[in-house]
UniProtKB/TrEMBL annotation:
It holds the Pfam family E3_binding. Gene3D superfamilies: 2.40.50.100, Chloramphenicol acetyltransferase-like domain, E3-binding domain. Residues 104-115 have a biased composition (Basic and acidic residues). Residues 3-78 form the Lipoyl-binding domain. Its EC number is 2.3.1.-. This is Dihydrolipoamide acetyltransferase component of pyruvate dehydrogenase complex. The keyword Acyltransferase applies. Its cofactor is (R)-lipoate. The lineage of its organism: Bacteria, Pseudomonadati, Verrucomicrobiota, Verrucomicrobiia, Verrucomicrobiales. Forms a 24-polypeptide structural core with octahedral symmetry.
Length: 410
């Protein structure tokens, strides 16, 4: 009977690999077309691998906890000729079927149905995480900026980045960290308790490391919340404050598109759509689903989509259409009781806007001639200083605050 490959699909923009979380079938299991049979975790969310046709699971090459590149064959299905014809799938091992799908699959070329070898174990695709962190002791240790070729080679062997060894005290010339310093440090922490970093934790580490290659700066401003909170009480259901912040940010960016650009060489690329991400805290990381066309839809029109995205993100099941492509991000760190923070934008974005927790503060009322209690929250805007200057960031942030004073127009 024809065999059909189950491959690691392209699960989103810029996703090159995924880790197997759970196998939902076993060899011999009967499956239907479009059935989710493997659960995987990418650096953005938890997703499922589905079948292209119905049949019986002939082989399973994937192992739970292992990471595989996009296109790697995870298993083989045995299907009837009628099912293959009905679904139009490519038969595994059919050299004549030169379809785009077939060209993208990393097929095991030394396996053919009907040979004496009944099972095939594909060569394992070694996918090294881009960041493998080391726990370092706190203290007054100093590292060196220069890394020798020998030291770099040893770091590459261990999968280490410069940030992983920056706290090691260097004994070389000018405080340079030597290979001997590194080996001594590794021996020092060898007995320390530790856990394996999840793919999401590694992805966050990688993104933040790349973000900090740019000159980032932060400005802040108080935002009165009295009108916003009063207006929100009149609505049913009541949208979260983050949604109002998201909408105001989108409108402000549309008025000041230059602040939302990103620098490529000697060119500033401006946004073609005002799609903004929302930072959602999940276990061992942060998921940032993207809300599309924020400038074109009111808070009431955005509400249902926004709430669904937040729920799906907390389950790490962000829909594909909400992954990537955002021009900026909003984050409500006030939900953790924080009044002030300096959030870091994603490497592909220039801006991130944060909101702190609201609190009553004494504000001078000129008409009354006295201080009156006003509910306020701190807004902070972190930006890429290569693209935006402090003045431009301040104008953008002030416009967000102004828009929040007229919540009924959002």
């Amino acid at each position: 009977m024809p065999l059909v490959a189950v491959t690691m699909p392209q699960l989103g923009e810029s996703i090159a690999e995924a880790t197997i979380i759970r196998l939902d079938v076993a060899i011999g299991s009967e499956v239907q077309a479009d059935q989710e049979i493997i659960e995987v975790e990418t650096n953005k969310a938890t997703m499922g691998v589905t079948t292209l046709c119905g049949g019986v699971v002939k082989e399973l090459f994937a192992e739970e906890g292992e990471t595989y590149a996009v296109g790697t064959i995870l298993g083989l299905l045995e299907a009837t000729a009628e099912e293959v014809e009905r679904t139009g799938v490519t038969v595994h091992g059919d050299e004549s079927a030169a379809t785009p799908v077939e060209e993208e699959v990393n097929r095991p070329h030394d396996y053919r149905p009907g040979t004496e070898e009944e099972s095939y174990t594909p060569p394992k695709v070694e996918v090294e995480p881009s960041v493998q962190g080391l726990k370092v002791p706190a203290g007054g240790l100093q590292g060196a900026h220069y890394i020798s070729p020998r030291m770099r080679a040893r770091m590459n062997e261990l999968g280490l980045q410069g940030a992983d060894v920056s706290a090691i005290a260097g004994s070389g010339a000018g405080g340079r960290v030597t290979v001997e310093d590194l080996e001594s440090f590794l021996s020092y922490i060898e007995g320390w308790p530790g856990t394996k970093a999840s793919p999401m934790r590694l992805a966050v580490a990688d993104a933040m490391r790349r973000s900090w290659t740019r000159p980032l700066a932060t400005v802040g401003m108080e935002a009165p919340l009295e009108k916003l909170v009063a207006y929100r009480k009149t609505l049913d259901p009541k949208p979260g404050l983050t949604l109002f912040l998201l909408r105001a940010f989108g409108l402000a960016l549309k008025e000041h598109p230059a602040t939302a650009g990103f620098l490529v060489g000697q060119k500033v690329v401006h946004p073609k759509a005002y799609d903004i991400g929302v930072a959602v805290q999940v276990e061992d990381g942060v998921v940032v689903p993207v809300v599309r066309n924020v400038d074109q839809r009111s808070v009431s029109e955005l509400s249902a989509d926004y709430e669904n995205l937040v729920v799906q993100s907390r389950d790490k099941k962000v829909p594909e259409e909400a992954v990537g492509g955002g021009i900026a991000t909003v984050t409500n760190f006030g939900t953790f009781g924080l009044r002030w923070a300096t959030p870091v934008p994603l490497p592909s974005e220039t801006l991130i806007l944060g909101m702190g927790s609201g609190e009553k503060r004494p504000v001078w009322d000129e008409a009354a001639g006295q201080f009156v209690p006003v509910l306020e929250a701190e807004l902070t805007l972190t930006f890429d200083h290569r693209v935006v200057d402090g003045g431009g960031a301040g104008v953008l942030l002030r416009r967000v605050v102004e828009l929040l004073q007229n919540p009924e127009d959002l």
